[in-house]
Specification:
The N and C termini lie far apart (about 95 Å). Strand 5 and strand 6 (about 115-120) form a beta hairpin. This protein has two helices and 16 strands. An eight-stranded antiparallel β-barrel has the order 1-2-3-4-5-6-7-8. An eight-stranded antiparallel β-barrel has the order 9-10-11-12-13-14-15-16. The protein is mainly beta and about 280 residues long. The chain is elongated and about 60 Å long.
Length: about 280
């Protein structure tokens, strides 16, 4: 092969190599090196269950991700937390965190009682709706503690939930019909999702029915029932947990705080399991 022909091949080979490099750069090869990709979690209502060898802690609320940063407002239930009245938004604890590759590092707290929970969760992919990992808990006079953690996104319930109470005091024949006529909207500034539901409460001698207010934070549900506008209404409180995997079951405790104009409603207290597939 003559020298001019060889030179033409070398020029062509060099030109092709330059074009290939430019094409690769245009496909984002350089951008991937400078900006490593990371997993993303689905924004919304998350339930986190942290278990140690002796205790269980429930964390719930709204989590949002922007690039590699995570923020949220959470409700925390556990032995280190002081009892609070129903769904007071002031008990919300801040969540902050970041994702590096497939590792999510989260901090929840301090809560109003001083609890801080730190978690490391793993998940690969985009719009993740469940993850698992480990946690540590810090609080003066309670802890330290550590263990495993599972996190799941929880959809807002819709439909009828029926159940019969197991009374620890008062009337033993309590039944509750909880109706979510439509799915609730997004979380408010506290990180909780406001609920507007209808509740029917009955025992052997009284019945009450009214729209009620409540909040959903992860799998945590708090509802307060007030029937009557006068100075002595019927007041019924329910606090419980949805099954985060399939929100057809709602387990919790109930208490009639006031019988109001129906004294027979007063004094009922116990546990109850509400099931959207039940037929009472």
């Amino acid at each position: 092969m003559s020298q001019p022909v060889v030179q033409c091949f070398r020029v062509a080979e060099t030109a092709f190599s330059m074009i290939l490099l430019l094409a690769l750069a245009g496909c984002g090869g350089t951008a991937q090196i400078n900006n490593p990709s990371h997993s993303t979690m689905k924004a919304g209502n998350w339930s986190i269950t942290a278990k140690s060898s002796a205790e269980t802690y429930i964390v719930g609320g709204n989590i949002q991700q922007s690039n590699s940063s995570l923020v949220g407002q959470m409700r925390v239930l556990g032995p280190c937390e002081s009892p609070t009245s129903n769904f007071d938004p002031s008990v919300a604890a801040p969540l902050s965190g970041a994702v590096d590759g497939t590792t999510f590092t989260l901090k929840v707290g301090p809560t109003p009682s001083g609890t801080v929970i730190r978690m490391k969760l793993s998940g690969s992919g985009t719009s993740l709706n469940n993850m698992a990992g480990t946690f540590t808990l810090e609080k003066e006079g309670c802890g330290p503690d550590q263990g495993t953690v599972e996190a799941n996104i929880v959809s807002v319930p819709k439909g009828h939930y029926l159940g019969k109470g197991i009374g620890t005091s008062g009337d033993s024949n309590v039944s509750v019909d909880l109706d979510w006529p439509q799915q609730a909207g997004p979380a408010d500034a506290s990180g909780y999702i406001p609920l507007n539901v209808n509740l029917s409460y009955k025992n052997s001698s009284c019945s009450a029915n009214t729209p009620v207010n409540g909040y959903l934070a992860g799998s945590i549900v708090d509802i307060v029932f007030v029937e009557g506008d006068g100075p002595n209404p019927v007041i019924f409180a329910f606090s419980g947990l949805l099954d985060p995997q399939a929100n057809t079951v709602l387990k919790g405790t109930y208490q009639t705080l006031s019988g109001g104009s129906q004294p027979a409603c007063s004094g009922d207290q116990g546990t109850i399991e509400l099931d959207s597939t039940a037929d009472l």
